[in-house]
Amino acid sequence: MNARRPQLRITHAGPVASVALARARQRGMRVADLLLDLCVALEEIGRRAETRAIVLTADSEAFSIGGDLRRFAHEAGNAELETYSAELVGLLNQAILALMKSPQPVVAAVQGSVTGGAIGLVLASDVVIAGESAEFHARSVAAGLTPDGGWTALLPRLVGGRRAAACLLLDRAVSAADALLWGLVTEVVPDAQVAQAARDAASRIAAAPSNVIREGKRLLAADLDQVERALEAERRSFVAAIAQAETRAHVARFVAASDS
After folding, report:
1. CA distances from 51 to 4, 61, 111, 247 (A)
2. For residue 23, how many other CB atoms are within 10 A of its CB?
3. What gap in Å lies between CA 38 and CA 31, rounded to an integer?
4. Which residues touch 245 (CB under 8 Å, ≥6 apart)?
5. By C-alpha distance, which of 171, 184, 183 is closest to 137?
6. Would you call 136 helix, strand, or coil by DSSP?
7. By three-state DSSP, how is residue 57 classified?
């Protein structure tokens, strides 16, 4: 059975639900409508007793290139930009927490770029199957923005403080091979095999006793109250930064350089 929201493609196949970010032309760009749709979809799927695992993927060669920096650049003088930023990062935080709170384990199928706050959708997943082309890159320093999406709230827990600092302060891009070595992803496969490998992992989860899987996820979970506070700190920092003329000018220069 298939369902569709404006920004998502949702498929139910037996005990496995697949949720795809359906923004191929925009390379999975993170927008408010997509994040809201994702939160609603996860809530609905969470109520389905017959669903035992979720695959999170994207209808694009890139999992997600993050937020729409061109909007930040083009609306640099717009007083509503701070409100938009607060809403966007707030919805991203809700989506991250929804993935972490989902009673069904989430398997992320990732290939291509994962940029900016889009990392949060990967960090919040329970199993991550990455293609060889996958690359994780904060780009916050280059863009002149403070990190959002769990780069400080979740990444250090997985890879350690020094590696997280290298990603943020030195703007280091992390290849699929390094992501596997660091523990950021579960498995790396050829790009052509990512979708099937993710479905296989989800099917394997779904075949196990549901109560055992759900309890295992609960016991493995981070302190969600602490995560929520850390994500909120990221949001506040992001909004405070975007309110500064220096930040907006830096973003505009970054976008102009990227387009040239």
Report:
1. 17, 27, 25, 44
2. 22
3. 11
4. none
5. 171
6. strand
7. strand
Give the rounded distance of the alpha carbon of 119 from its chain centre.
4
What are the tens digits of pLDDT across the range 62-96? 898 777 666 665 655 556 778 888 899 999 999 99
Residue ranges of domains in the chain:
2-259
**Amino acid letter, 218:** R
- Written as one string, the DSSP assignment of 147-214 is --TTTTTTHHHHH-HHHHHHHHHS---EEHHHHHHHTS-SEEE-GGGHHHHHHHHHHHHHHS-HHHHH
Domain 2-259: CATH class, spelled out: alpha beta
List the 16-21 sheet strands across, edge first: 2-5, 8-13, 16-21, 53-58, 106-110, 127-131, 187-189
> Which residue pairs from 240-243 have beta carbons closer than 8 angstroms and sit at least 24 positions apart in sequence?
240/146, 241/144, 241/145, 241/146, 242/72, 242/81, 242/82, 242/85, 242/145, 243/82
Side chain identity, residue 124: A
pTM given for the model = 0.91
